Amino acid sequence: MIWFVASLILLAALIVLGWPLFRSGGPAISRSERGLDVYRRQLGELDEEIARGALETREADSIQLEIKRRILRLGHQEKISSPVSGTRNWIVILAIIVIIPVASLGLYVDLGSPDEPSRPLPSRDIAAETAALQSENLAPLIKRLIDALREKPDNLDGWILLARTLTRMERYQEGAETYLKATVLAPEATDLYMGAGENYYFAADGTVTPDAEKAFEKALALSPKDPGARYYLALRDAQKGDEPGALKQWIALYEGSPADAPYMPVLTRRIKETAAKTGSDLGDLFEKKMAAIPRSGPNGEDIAAAANMSADDRQAMIGSMVQRLSDRMAETPDYDGLMRLGQVYGTLAQYDKSAEAYARASALRPDDKLALAAEAGAYIQGAGKDSLPSTAVDLYRKVLALDPDHPQALWYVGFAEAAAGNDSEAARLWTRLQQLTPDGSPVHDAAVRAIKDLSAKGKN
User: Fold this and answer.
1) Which candidate in 33, 171, 200, 417 could, as Cys together with 426 as Cys, close a disulfide (CB 3.0–4.6 Å)?
2) pLDDT tens digits, one per residue of 87-100
């Protein structure tokens, strides 16, 4: 099929190139005849100018004399007629027919893949091909980062961005080494050791190697409650044959973790698989965790009843449900319930109450960036678009102390710094936000515009 299609394309190209040469040409007008025709028209135009009075007779006589001299000079030249040579046409046509196909075939044999078997779409790994293409697109970024770090090796953000980019490209060994280089600048950063350990783990196809173990142990020493380090070190024990010991550690991590933690599905699967291998009885471990989740939403009967309610009655029912949740949080407050209460108040546009609920949740977990950011967001929503409350900025500064890469905190603290005249700090924060967000996303574009506005202000 490919040769048939290629032949059709080649034939179309030959027809386009050769068709003008097949057309029979008439006698060609010589250059002398063309010149005489031009001079005759000039004499005619000159007579018209004289008739209109645009030229005086004396000026016209000198011009006519010069034109007639040129006509006489051309009259002494031989008038030739040179029809297009049919013989020459056929030579050119034959050259096109031979040279173009031979040259095309030669180029394809040299640059193409004539022996490559066909690859039907169902048999292709599109995801792998897409990942390979993305890796090629990231290669220039890697080079720029490396060049920049050679000039400024103390740029911690640059090392972290390079490590994350290498991880995205699945260059795990290099990613791990880059994370460890970053720990020289931030020796107390748990996330950097976790990043190194996970890259070593992925590089070894899911095995906790000695290098990965060393990184996870360092992370655990810095943050004894870090769930990632605890999970991987328990996995290390399981891979070394101590599956009962690993199961015990995973159960302890499960019991001490929030029910909605993002790692809970993976942890649950590990516990179930290991319990099945060791013949361990888990009892009501999972049932207790599910029972601990506050059920503040409507049940089936509430939904069925709400379908037949008027708008006022439905609003009253929602208010009653919110009040029940609020009363329960007043009696027995817990983090998950307070976070849910803050979210409900925010949906109802009761931003003061929303901020209060998030603040109470933050008091239960002082180092929880989610509650701090949610409280700051509630203050901002309550203040409107034209105001940035200092309370929200202070909260976002705390968030940045816990997570230097938090997008909302980078954005709003950057605005506060710009308003205070600290343009360099605002540019640093927004540049970091730009690096963390994908090209073309609204946040990325907003950061780019904000940085440009700062530059324009500096020039003015």
Assistant:
1) 417
2) 556 677 777 777 77
